[in-house]
Amino acid sequence: MISYSKLYEPQDEPEDDYQTTKMKMVIVMASHLKMGRGKEIAQGGHAVMGAYNDSMWRWGPIGGDMSEAWEENGKKKVCLKVYSEDEIVRLAMLCEAADIGHYLVRDAGRTEVAPMSATALGIGPDYEHNIDRITGELALY
């Protein structure tokens, strides 16, 4: 039996059922910044890579199995939006408290947005029900 934090114990599912439990990654975009499409794509890419790396680190020894389960189930990704910096920072704090892999992108400010603006947040991959507890009320982007 696999041992991992209580957060990762699926509700109403066997503890070690990570191979069949639905997983996903979420990219949250800061829509209030009105970035150009290319800038949004680049920021989303930073969020995905950072969140994936953070998830692998947090999962530790079972990271390979969790990553494989996500990949074998289609590498599901969903893009959502927030309307303020406070919202995106609050979501990052909730991810940290729940021990869910995430990455908050803060831009260098060389092109379209002010330096250190929170432009995107990558969350997961993780169990859908864990991520939905944090992002379930957000609108699709």
What distance lies between the first and last C-alpha atoms, to the nearest angstrom? 38 Å
Q: What is the mean pLDDT?
A: 87
The CATH C-level name is Alpha Beta
Question: How many whole angstroms does the radius of gyration measure?
Answer: 15 Å
CATH superfamily: Bit1
Portion in strands: 15-25%
- Are there runs of 5+ residues with pLDDT below 50, and where? 1-14
Largest sheet: 5 strands, mixed
What is the CATH topology? Bit1
Number of domains: 1
- Number-wise, the strands total 5
Q: What strand order characterises the main sheet?
A: 3-4-1-2-5
Structural category is alpha+beta
Compressed to H and E, one letter per element, the order equals EHHEHEEHE
Structural commentary:
With 141 residues, the chain is an alpha+beta fold. The chain has a single domain, classed as Bit1 (3-Layer(aba) Sandwich), CATH 3.40.1490. It contains four helices and five strands; from the N terminus they run E-H-H-E-H-E-E-H-E. The radius of gyration is 15 Å and the shape is globular.
Q: How is this fold's topology laid out?
A:
Layout: E1 23-30, H1 37-59, H2 63-72, E2 77-82, H3 85-98, E3 102-106, E4 118-127, H4 128-135, E5 139-140
Parallel strand pairs: 1-2
Antiparallel strand pairs: 1-4, 2-5, 3-4
Helix pairs in contact: 1-2, 3-4
